[in-house]
UniProtKB/TrEMBL annotation:
<dbReference type="Pfam" id="PF13384">
    <property type="entry name" value="HTH_23"/>
</dbReference>
<protein>
    <submittedName>
        <fullName>Transposase</fullName>
    </submittedName>
</protein>
<dbReference type="InterPro" id="IPR036388">
    <property type="entry name" value="WH-like_DNA-bd_sf"/>
</dbReference>
<dbReference type="GO" id="GO:0005634">
    <property type="term" value="C:nucleus"/>
</dbReference>
<dbReference type="InterPro" id="IPR009057">
    <property type="entry name" value="Homeodomain-like_sf"/>
</dbReference>
Length: 83
């Protein structure tokens, strides 16, 4: 089945249904849909990891300002809260 995965995913990304892919490739529909499901789960996990990465930053005070620095680069200065 490994040799079919790339083709199944490519056809799915082109908009074909799992049922139609199974017919075209002469495979069982459950097998095709399982491959598609795993692919989608992997894509969702990758997207979640990327979102978490963009939320990571460090905080420290410099020159009386709170500096928020993103671990991926870039920073932003904020004025301290006024009492």
């Amino acid at each position: 089945m490994k040799e079919f995965r790339g083709g199944i995913i490519r056809m799915f990304e082109q908009g074909k249904s799992g049922y139609k892919i199974a017919q075209d490739m002469n495979l069982h529909a459950r097998t095709v849909n399982r491959i598609i499901k795993r692919y989608q789960e992997k894509q969702e996990a990758t997207a979640t990891d990327k979102e978490a990465k963009y939320q990571e930053f460090t905080r420290f005070e410099r020159d009386g300002l709170l500096n928020l620095e993103h671990l991926g680069g870039g920073s932003m200065l904020e004025a301290p809260p006024v009492d």
